[in-house]
């Protein structure tokens, strides 16, 4: 998603996929999906030491719990959940990295990047849902 970079921040298709799946299933299935996605993120990253695994799993569980009782195909709801999930994932990630010894002096910069990424993820979630509705015959 390098083409959609805004202020050195890119949308996360992994997070969008995890949220999209998590709002449709039970929390334990969302946790398994988030765990697998987080493990892959950690394997492809260097020096994160499991921070993506913890953050993505936690966000998958939270998204699944929050979406109980709502329609899983509501565009505003999913965009809002994607926005909040991005902020929660970044918070969990940076807290975990802080426990691993990462210096916390750049917290405001990371917060601004998280806000931009949250907006981008909400936009990507909206576009994905509109495209899926276009090709899904249930909405025809």
Task: Walk me through what this model shows.
There is one protein chain. It contains 5 helices and no strands. The chain is mainly α and 140 residues long. It has one domain: Arp2/3 complex 21 kDa subunit ARPC3, CATH 1.10.1760.
CATH topology: Arp2/3 complex 21 kDa subunit ARPC3
Alpha-carbon Rg, integer: 15 Å
Give the total of domains.
Answer: 1
- Helix and strand content put the structural class at mainly alpha
What count of helical segments does DSSP give? Answer: 5
- What is the class in the CATH system? Mainly Alpha
Which features would summarize this protein structure in a list?
single chain, 140 residues, mainly alpha, Arp2/3 complex 21 kDa subunit ARPC3, 70% helix
Question: What is the compact description of this entry?
Answer:
This protein has about 140 residues and is an all-alpha fold. It has helices at about 15-20, 25-45, 50-65, 75-100, 105-135. The chain starts with 12 loop residues before the first helix and ends in a 5-residue tail after the last helix.
How is this fold's topology laid out?
Blueprint lengths: L12 H10 L4 H18 L6 H16 L8 H25 L7 H29 L5
């Amino acid at each position: 998603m390098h083409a959609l970079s805004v202020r050195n921040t890119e949308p996360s298709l992994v997070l969008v996929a995890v949220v999209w799946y998590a709002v449709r299933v039970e929390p334990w299935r969302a946790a398994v999906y988030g765990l697998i996605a987080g493990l892959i993120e950690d394997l492809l990253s260097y020096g994160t030491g499991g921070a993506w695994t913890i953050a993505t799993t936690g966000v998958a569980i939270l998204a699944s719990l929050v979406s109980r009782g709502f329609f899983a195909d509501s565009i505003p709801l999913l965009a809002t959940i994607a926005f909040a999930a991005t902020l929660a994932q970044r918070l969990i990630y940076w807290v975990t990295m802080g426990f691993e010894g990462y210096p916390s002096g750049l917290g405001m910069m990371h917060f601004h990047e998280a806000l931009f990424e949250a907006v981008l993820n909400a936009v990507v979630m909206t576009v994905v849902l509109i495209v899926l509705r276009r090709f899904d015959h249930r909405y025809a």
